[in-house]
Specification:
about 325 residues, alpha+beta, four-stranded antiparallel β-sheet, 8 helices, 6 strands, rod-shaped, UBQ-conjugating_enzyme/RWD
Length: about 325
């Protein structure tokens, strides 16, 4: 199997190392990859003493993501047990349902011990959980030892080491400790958390939309000044003022009169407007024509004087 995978990959090296560590079965658990796929394992766990699962041996699958151990695996039980649904991914804080709670330092052994610790806990409506009566769970525990996996061919009673009281008590306490640290995710709680997150996002989106559509104070003042300068003095200038309402509805646009400008600015604007209205643009043509006529008249008059008084040819000969 080593030749089939890139041993430089961190996930491949991690899985090969864990397969080596878990090669020998214990009294409580055993796990190994299937022959042709390093990223799919089969595992076997034993029920704990003093519970409805005492004496039971349960088999299942572990599906690893390509970027393991950065993301958690998925756990699936195949043996009837009365606690988890068969052939369905288990919603556990250490499983693929909740990658946000997974730690890369956790291992396959950690996941198996956590699963053993969660077997006798109440289902609390979690995904993939069952709540069979204690009598039915005990019956399934007795029949589980003869169960045989159709995929790997393992018979449950032949997988794990013979049970000893000291060994089982030690690993049972460790499993309970892990189960106390990790929480079994309740489907109703998950849905409630998702709904609350969506409700919190909606007011934030509405607020951002209102903020982006509402003009700022500086923009409103600039618009008012612009309208004041361009509007004639005889009309009252208007500006658009946006008032925010108490509800999250769209803002209401209200037309309000702008305050009268200062007397100095108003008189200056009125003077400029009156000057521009009283100017006679025909003077631009009349004045040049008048100046040309005066020049022509002066030229003709000077010529006449020169001709009559200053020409020697008009004097009589002696």
């Amino acid at each position: 199997m080593t030749e089939m995978y890139n041993t430089k990959n961190a996930g491949v090296r991690r899985l090969m190392q864990e397969a080596k560590e878990l090669r020998n079965p214990t009294e409580m658990y055993h796990a190994q990859p299937i022959e042709d796929n390093l990223f799919e394992w089969h595992f076997t766990i034993r029920g704990t003493l003093g519970t409805d699962f005492e004496g039971g041996i349960y088999h299942g699958r572990i599906i690893f993501p390509a970027d393991y151990p950065m993301k958690p695996p998925n756990l699936i039980l195949l043996t009837p047990n009365g606690r988890f649904e068969l052939n369905k991914k288990i919603c556990l804080s250490i499983s693929g349902y909740h990658p946000e709670t997974w730690l890369p330092s956790w291992s396959i052994r950690t996941a198996l011990l956590a699963l053993i610790g969660f077997l006798p806990t109440p289902p609390a409506g979690a995904l993939g959980s069952l709540d069979y009566p204690a009598k039915e769970r005990k019956r399934l525990a007795k029949t589980s030892v003869d169960w045989k996996c159709k995929e790997c061919g393992c018979v449950m009673k032949d997988v794990l080491l013979p049970i000893t009281e000291d060994g089982q008590l030690k690993e049972t306490e460790e499993a309970k400790h892990l189960a106390a640290q990790l929480k079994f995710q309740d489907e109703s709680v998950v849905k409630k958390e998702v709904a609350e997150a969506e409700n919190q996002e909606k007011p934030t989106e509405n607020k951002s939309e209102n903020d982006s559509s509402s003009p700022t104070v500086s923009e409103t003042s600039q618009a008012s000044e612009k309208l004041t300068e361009t509007s004639p003095p005889e009309t009252t200038p208007l500006a658009v003022v946006v008032e925010e309402t108490v509800s999250v509805d769209d803002p209401i646009v209200v037309i309000e009169p702008v305050q009268e400008p200062s007397p100095v600015g108003a008189s200056y604007q009125q003077h400029r407007r009156l000057a521009s209205q009283s100017f006679d643009y025909s003077l631009l043509l009349t004045v040049p024509l008048g100046l040309i006529c005066v020049a022509i008249f002066i030229t003709l008059l000077a010529r006449r004087i020169l001709v009559e008084n200053g020409n020697p040819l008009n004097e009589p000969e002696l």
